Structure formats: structure tokens, C-alpha cells
Amino acid sequence: MSTTYSQERKIAGWLLSAPLLILLAGLLIWPMYLGFKTSITHDILSEFETYPAGFENYKNLLVEPNFWSSIRFTLIFALVASVIELTLGLGLALLFDRIFPGKRFLFSLMLIPIMIAPSLMAVMFRLILNENIGIIPGLLSKVGLSYSIFDQNNIFTSLIILDVIEFTAFTFLLSYSALQNMSSEIYEAAAIDGANKRQTLLRITLPILKPALAIVFLLRILDSIRTFDSIYILTGGGPGTSTQTVGIYIYKTAFIYGDFGLAAAAAIVLVLLLTPFMPFIIKQFNLGTESSR
Amino acid sequence: MKRNWGVTAAVSVIVFVFLIPLTGAFYTSLRTDAAIASGPFVWEFDSNWTHYKNALGAAGYDFPSFFRNSIIISLGTVLLTILVSFPASYAIVRLGFGGPWLLRLALALRITPAIFFVIPFYKLFTAYGLIDRPLGLILANSFINMTLALLVFAGAIKEMPLEIEEAAAVDGASIWMTLRKIVLPLLGPGLAAVGVLTFLFSWSDYLFAVVLTSSEATPVTVGAANFVTSYGVRWGDISAAVCLSILPPLVFATAAQKYLVKGLSSGAVKG
Asked: What is the pLDDT along chain B (271 residues), one digit of tens a residue?
């Protein structure tokens, strides 16, 4: 009886997972093979012949300054954007963690950026920053300032502001959820012990929130590393290659300059650079899902 | 009790700042072309919704077809993602299929940037005639959203009391019956969360769309971005097109806000 039951479970397990396994075989294993094969092939769009190139693409990549500068830009961008987004999101969550009129309505409004595609946000951003018709330059010129998005000095700030506008809603939402999970007894105990608001925040709230905030920060870093659409639409990676994220570098190498071999090698090197962090990150996530319950 | 209007005022100002791009685009979409051309603060509004009519086909843009493609791709992705992930999550959590490895793989994939898959997908889809077809984007988006769906479903199934399923097994219900009659109805909120997040993320996809489509299957994200470069002076029409593109996910996700919040915070995963 028990053997047939466990057999039934085994068969059911395979059958229920079959669609997933097929999807993984077709869209993970096969493409990974194709990606690796492309990376060791001389595969340039303008040349009709492709031929095996060994590790030539990898060697070329190692001495390709644009690739390394794109990695550097991506990391700086991800770090600056994530720190600002986490700080603002947490601040806003603390502000929302009170009772005030219109709270539910304002909460819904605050979540709107999550629902807007980053590419569409970038299009709107271009609109409001347009030198001739945009509201922002219009307002600034009224107080005697001028602002150009494409100015070398402003471009980084513009991109950070765009990212902050798009993703603070996300850090806010997750920080707010974490705050809601805290028990009110802790606050009551703190109040009884005579802790003031500042002490409660610094000594109790923040330390308890720390693991949850670490995960939010990690998520933002990981998502910022893959930033592509918003920056691509706003600057195309320019001026020059100064705002080229690694995603834009790979995309352009393959689909603008037509060097599929080099781009495939870059994609693989990017994942290899992330691999050492994966076990740590996976552990963090597991920890997070357990502590949130 | 004291009404905290001070907090309301502070929060309102902050929220307004975050919504400047959206309100800016909406404002522009309502103004006449003459007003737009003469500067940002000329108050002259178009009572005929001309820009919206233009965007929806009156001016001969392809926008209606972008819109249709986005709807097909997003709904198709939601359906395929759920069909693939729901039974597999049950197998992983309750039948112990694949040990912890499938979920760890899902997390590892979650960390892998989507750009990693762009070139292989392009090669693969070219070989199988899936380029510039909605099905190609449905497959690509389902693959990317599958990790999120697996994590949310696995979390939801773990939270379900095991006793009900055990009782059903004692009463002689097969695994299929248990899945259909007990697990599926209890999983309603999880399904809603996965549905709304997958819809949102596949609607927002730009990277796969720009690589895997050229004209026939182009969704609104790529369509709107191309609008800017091709009709860079028609800001009124562009704004209307962008506002229209934002509307379906906005309405859908606001209506299902509870599940959006649940999905984002329980999975703590974003595509």
C-alpha cells in the first residue's frame, strides 16, 4: 500500500513538473548551450561566414575598455541609486506608519510608479525635461536657471533621479510591509521604559528592520545592475559611452555593431562575475522568507 | 483624537513629486499643439481629445496594433506562467520533487540579468521562426516571470494547512483531485498575486521586445519609445499614446492592489 502510494507521488511529481522541465530545457539549457557556442565563434553580422574562434572573443573582451568601463558605471549607478531609494523609501514608510487623513488614497497614489513601465517612464521623463516644451526647464528658467539633460555634468544626476522616481515606490512598499509586521507590543514596552521617539527608532525599529532592509537593498542592487530600458531611451548610453550600463554595452555590441560572438562572451563574463555572490544571495533570500513569517 | 493634517500635507507633496512625470505627460496630452509649441505654461486645452484620437489611429500611427500586441503578450504570459508554475510548485513543496534544488535554481535565475538570455533567445527564435511573433515574447516573458511565480506559489502552498490535504488523502482522494478541489481554491490570493505581477512585468518588458520583434509583434513599450525618435515634435500625440499605454496595467494593478502588495512583499522578488 505504502509503496504504491509513494510511487504514485513520484509519478505525479514528474507529471506536474513536466511543463516546467520542458520550459527549462527549451529556454534555459538549450539557450545556455547556444550562448556559449556563440561566445566561442567568430560571429559578425556583416560577415556571412561564421567560424570557430576558440577563446578569441574572451581575450578581446578582457582588453576592451568599453566593457570594463560599462561594468564600473553599472556598479556606481546601482550603488548610488539603491542607497538613495532605500533611504527615501524607508523615510516614507516611517512617515506612512502613522494615522493621518487620506492615508489609503495617498498610499495607492504612491504605488503608481511601480505600475508604469520603466521605458514609458523614460519617455515621459524626456517630455518633462525637454528644453523647449518641458515643465522642468520651464520652471527653472522662471527662477533664472537653465538645465539640459544631455549636458555631461547633469546626465548622471538626471539618470539617478529617473531611477529614484521609478523605484522608490518599490523600496517604500517593502519597508512599509516590514514595518507592519512589527508587533506593537515592542513599542509599548519601549514607551513604558521611557524611550523617546528618536531612541525607539534608532535602538528598536531600525535594528529589527535590518534583515528586511538588507534584502530590499540587495534586490535593488540586483535590479539596478540589469538597468537597460530607461537609460537606453534617455541617453542611448551617451554622450559617448559615458552612461553605458553593461546591459546597453551587450545590446549594442550585438544588435548595433553586429558582433554576436563578443556580446555573448560579455554576457557570460557578466554572469561569471555575479556567480561568487549567488550562494550568499540565495541564503539571504531564504532567511528573508522565513523571518517574514 | 488629533487629526494629523501636517503628515497628510507632507506626504501629499512627496507623492506629487513622484507623480510629476505622469501628470506632466497627461497635462501635455490635453493641450493643443499650438499651446505646446509656445511653451510649457500656456493654458490652452483641447476639448476634442484630438491627441488621443490621433494616437488611437486617426493620424495613421501603428499604435492600435502595438496596443493589441501588448494585451495578447501580457495575457498569454500570465496564462502560460500560471500553467507551468502552479503544478510544479505543488510537486516541489508537497511531493518533494527535485528537493530544494528547483527553488534554488529559480533564485539563481532571478539573480541572472535578463540580458544574459537575449542573444541565445535571438538565435533560437530566429532558427524556429519565433522572431516578431507574439508567441516568442510570451515564451521569453514566461521564462523570466516563472521564477517569481514559483517562489510566490511555493510560499503560499507552504502556508496552507497540511491537515486538509491529509484528510482528503485518507478519504481516498487522488493527488489530482486534491490539487483541483482543495489546493487551487485555497490558492486564490496567490494566483491573483502572480497574475497581477506577471501582467505588470510582461507589459513593462522592453529588452526582449526590442530584440525579438521588428514590426508585427511590437508592444507599446517599444512602440512608444520609437514614437519619440520618429515623431519627436508631436509631443501631444506621444503623450496621449504614453498615457494610454500606462492605463491598462494601472487600472488592473490598482484594482488588485492588495494582491500586488502581497505578491511583491511575500516573494520579495521583482522581474
From this structure: 567 899 999 999 999 999 999 999 999 999 998 888 888 888 888 888 899 999 888 877 889 999 999 999 999 999 999 999 999 999 999 888 887 888 888 888 888 999 999 999 999 999 999 999 999 999 999 999 998 899 889 888 988 888 888 888 888 888 888 888 889 998 998 999 999 999 999 999 999 999 999 999 999 999 999 888 777 678 899 999 999 999 999 999 999 999 988 888 765 543 3
Q: From the CB of residue B19, how many other CB atoms can be counted at a distance below 10 Å?
A: 17
Across the interface, of B14, B114, B235, the residue whose CB is closest to A92 is B14
Residue A153 CB neighbour total at 10 angstroms? 7
Pairing of strands A41-42, A51-52: antiparallel
Alpha-carbon distances of A204 from A181, A199, A200, B192, rounded to whole Å: 14, 7, 5, 35
Q: Which residues of B touch A8 (CB under 8 A)?
A: 174-175
Q: How far apart are the first and last CA of chain A?
A: 36
Probe site for chain B from A111, A115, A221, A229 (most B CB atoms < 10 A): A115
**Using a CB-CB distance cutoff of 8 angstroms, which residues of chain A are in contact with residue B95?**
9-10, 12-13, 16
Report chain B residues whose CB lies below 8 A from the CB of A100.
3-5, 7-8, 11
Helix (H) or strand (E) holding A41: strand A41-42
Nearest to B111, CA basis, from A244, A120, A61, A284? A284
- Which sign does the torsion angle of CA A142, A148, A154, A160 carry? positive
Interface pTM (ipTM) of the complex? 0.92
- Please answer whether residues A204 and A195 qualify as being in contact, where contact means their C-beta atoms are separated by less than 8 angstroms: yes
User: Can you read off the three cell numbers belonging to residue A86?
Assistant: 532605500
CA distance B10 to A189: 29
B93 and B187 in contact (C-beta within 8 Å)? no
Tell me, what amino acid is at A21? L
